[in-house]
Amino acid sequence: MTTVELIAFPGAQNLPIFAALEQGLFEKAGITLNMTTTPNSAYQAENLASGKFNIAGTAFDNVVAYVEAQGAVKLDPVPDFFAFMGATQIELAFITQADIKSYADVKGKVLAMDALYTGFAFVLYEMLAKAGLTKADYKIEPVGATPVRWEAVKAGKYAGTMTIEPFTSIARGNGFTVLDTSTKHYADYQGQAYVASRKWAAANPEALKGFIKGYLAGLEWTLTPANRQGATDLLLKKMPEIQPRVAGAVMDSLLSPKSGLTPAAAMLPAGIDVVLDLRSRFGGGTKKLTDQSRYVDLQYYNAVVGR
Predict the structure, then answer these.
(1) Relative to the CA of 231, which of 17, 150, 221, 260 has its CA 20 to 30 Å away?
(2) Per-residue buried b or exposed e for 111-143, using 16+ beta carbons within 10 Å of the residue's own CB
């Protein structure tokens, strides 16, 4: 069987992958999957471009960033990344220290993000701007992926950051403030997607389709109501940092199509438009980004699901 190397951000959104690995669903689909978690978006992009990894589970904005040569690191040549399948609508939460109860309290504070020009950072910039704050009112430092940022905020090094599950529920359970969420601002937002290079996909179509088949089987199991307890137990096993007392809240968010896993792993056209609009305004480029086909190709997904 072909071995496929996956690099993904840590988080509850990986539960369908955990389920598919646990149940041998990738092997049934004809591949062996090795999964690695990334410390940050730059490492992920560099090593996906180099071929060390074949597939990435990443924020959809990262695809747009690197295709437009606006990524956190400059890659030469410009990579041919594309999203071949969706993963999450995702709810981004702006969590802050317990004594920060309003946006006014954010003034003069230092916030943590993965990088300064990523999609999740753009959502935070938009939240802050809507609340009347300018970039002179706060400072943002690049720290790394969500677990690293959360630990830094928890230790008091930063006033706040953006989180995804399970870190949002963990923060809330530890007395931190959830000041705002992306779902209050956007009805649709393309969060995570699964990504590869067009060159690798063209050379390995069956391996890519095997990954899609295995993931969809793991997703179907995860979203089946009768499997909720088993899915919760598996998540706690794979992510021991989740306290059992917040596991229910994590699962509620993860299983909601408005804040977590997307049914059938579909891409969300309206959510893609939001990502493109935010990058057009905050990414430092000079053009309005509107052409979804530059970043998305569903031919492999459609072949698997029979479209």
Answers:
(1) 150
(2) bbbbbebbbbbbbbbbbbeeeebeeeebebebb
Fold topology of 2-89+189-305: D-Maltodextrin-Binding Protein; domain 2 (3.40.190)
What pLDDT shows up at residue 7? 98
pLDDT digits (tens, 9 = 90+) for 16-29: 999 999 999 999 99
Average pLDDT, the chain: 96
CA distance 149 to 152: 5
Select from 161, 171, 198 the least CA-distant residue to 67: 198
Confidence of residue 218 (pLDDT cuts 50, 70, 90): very high
Which residues of the chain form CATH 3.40.190.10?
2-89+189-305, 93-184
161 forms beta bridges with 95, 112
Type and span of the H or E element at 245: helix 244-255
3-class DSSP state of 16: helix
